[in-house]
């Protein structure tokens, strides 16, 4: 039986391996050596999903770690055929894996993944045999595997990190940003570590699962990271997540229990590592000042930034860009606090309890990227809110001026964010004990209060004018940064010298162009020029102007691409050639494939591809819907080359990508082979442009807004790729839904036929700058760090 499952009894497998087999050490695995009658043994630390190769063969990849203390102690195992299917069903991380009858081959990913320079190829056809010693059951308390099979990991000090390696490490958290949603769909967390070498390492960690990121609650926590990839950037080492990344986090307090907070259900943690944690705690206590700006509500003052550990007792939506959290920590703020006016029906939480705690709770207004998490919080949960800002309210009457407001501004600067603490967190246990001892007032008649009376108690807040209403009332836009800047009137802006930045509140009287599709331009970030987007007829004319050079047979099916040629059945007998770029000498699935098409155009518009009676450019767009990328090329004497840069250098989906004629220096099309050699080619337009020497043009919205606020009027330019409308400028020209969405947005910002008083307010950041016009300097204004509110879009 090629794959055998063995049980471990008293630390030894119940069935012995064949006596003729001898163990091979990792350092002796080399191409060309005789490994007959040898076996390799290691512990499974990572496995990939079972997949099928292009010919239908099952393929399964695992990573083994041996017990050597060398810098590189992990190895890729590639399993093919029936053995791959069997192993995928049986193998779990932590299992002991033994393989004999293997083939040693060069690993093309060694530099990228930091593992051994060779990998082992295993299949039933090659006479391989696999023995799997199943992992002992997981201990219920810690989740760690038994020390008898725990792999001996090697941990790299922060002063010994090298570019391109994948390492395991320990460190003390000196700074961190709580997980937040990145620009894509993943969560992101940023952590800066330090160890006894006094070297710092900043790690940027991504994962689609929030629970798979490190569970860090405060500076001074100690973390263990497995499989962190090291990259050098601007002379400094940085860490990023790699396949199989896992973490443990420990309280950094000297003497606290060493209880790991794990990012995975199964992990190893041995006695020797407990000593490592304790040593780091002692070193940090005497060498680092890692305590954060924590404070209780009883300690706050105006213009503070602090971290608050608290319990959530109420929450409510305020508007499209902000959300209310009602929290308490058992202490009373020494200042009157701002109560955010919300409708009773919007407020979640036990209204009896909220009224009971009305003198001890504070209203924290969270903005922008924090709103998504705030909405999902459960009433009663314990939180640590990082970098809350307290500021004095400015109001029209003296009674309100002494109130304090609590804000969690948008962005992640200074570690802003919200952390959810578990019930067994030491700080939570301490807080719960304290809250149980708090004496509450005005509670004796609560049981007799009717729901209408409770509603009146909350609605009485409505006569308190809030800063949100004062500054953002009816605002259809959201500020994405610089929340601390005060509003400036347009009159003051117009009378100020340039360059400067301002926060304004104004109404949109008019905008240009009225035909919104005309607002999309192509921009070169290098030479800062704008140009119109060529239409379809322009592309046709470019193709018609191509030299009618027949495909060069010597350029067919090179080492990195495979070519297919058709001869059309019409009277012209045209030859059509498509080149499919290969990955590891294999063709990929269409959705992962880049292809190059040779375009031949005669005096009349050439009919392209596959059938002599087919369509014209529509056929190219059919290819872009089926394949990842299409690059139009033409044959020269000894190479394929791009068309003139008046044509797009790349077609992807419905988007045409253009290059700047002035700033581009086109390189050989052969350079695409370097991308094809990557482990997982992404075929991203920016990467393709870089290897081909193209300076890509970016689609951008360019509009002129006429803004007024009662003190003056000015023209401000919008120059935006996708942030303001939350619509990519690259997609607007080919997507009718997005066109309708943009038109509806502009009709909301500047409703046609409405009086000025009925227009919504827009809160914007604008910056002034000078443009030399002959001997004169003209001042212009541009909108930045502003986006359309969620409920408007």
Average pLDDT rating: 79
Give the CA-based shape: flat
**What separation lies between the terminal Cα atoms?**
62 Å
Largest sheet: 10 strands, mixed
- Alpha-carbon Rg, integer: 32 Å
Structural category: alpha+beta
Number of helices: 15
Q: Which runs of at least 5 residues are low in confidence (pLDDT < 50)?
A: 137-150, 395-401, 442-474, 601-616
> Quick one: how many beta strands?
40
Number of domains: 5
> DSSP strand (E) fraction?
25-35%
- Binned, the helix content reads 10-25%
GO biological process, one term: regulation of double-strand break repair via nonhomologous end joining
Pfam family, one: POT1
Main location: nucleus
Keywords: Chromosome, DNA-binding, Nucleus, Telomere
Protein described:
This protein folds into five domains: 132 residues, Beta Barrel (OB fold (Dihydrolipoamide Acetyltransferase, E2P)); 123 residues, OB fold (Dihydrolipoamide Acetyltransferase, E2P); 145 residues, OB fold (Dihydrolipoamide Acetyltransferase, E2P); 134 residues, OB fold (Dihydrolipoamide Acetyltransferase, E2P); 147 residues, no CATH class. Helix content is 15%, strand content 34%. It is built from 15 helices and 40 strands. About 9% of the residues have low confidence. Pfam families: POT1, POT1_C_insert, POT1PC.
Features of this protein?
793 residues, alpha+beta, OB fold (Dihydrolipoamide Acetyltransferase, E2P), 5 domains, ten-stranded mixed sheet, five-stranded mixed barrel, 15 helices, 40 strands, 15% helix, flat
